[in-house]
Amino acid sequence: MTTDTNYDIVLVGGPRDGGLMNSVGSAVVELEIDGFIHRYVLTNQHTEQNGSQYTVFNYDGMIDPKGAMPGAETPDGGHHNPVDADGE
Length: 88
Known about the structure:
Layout: E1 9-12, E2 20-21, E3 28-33, E4 36-49, E5 52-63
Parallel strand pairs: 1-5
Antiparallel strand pairs: 1-2, 3-4, 4-5
């Protein structure tokens, strides 16, 4: 691991569990992974790893950027199912 980074947070849970990054002063970190947005939120917890202090960001879930989640009603009264290509 190089020392030229300024990582200040650790991601806990979700697809990037244990990942380090720079929060840039943000309370929410959103990462696009495989077409979905994964959100991590600031906590008041801190942890130490390899002699450095990190603020903990907990996994808050996955968001479909298209706005439709499984079981959500569609404008025509149906239900969205991302697995069903017909949308019925």
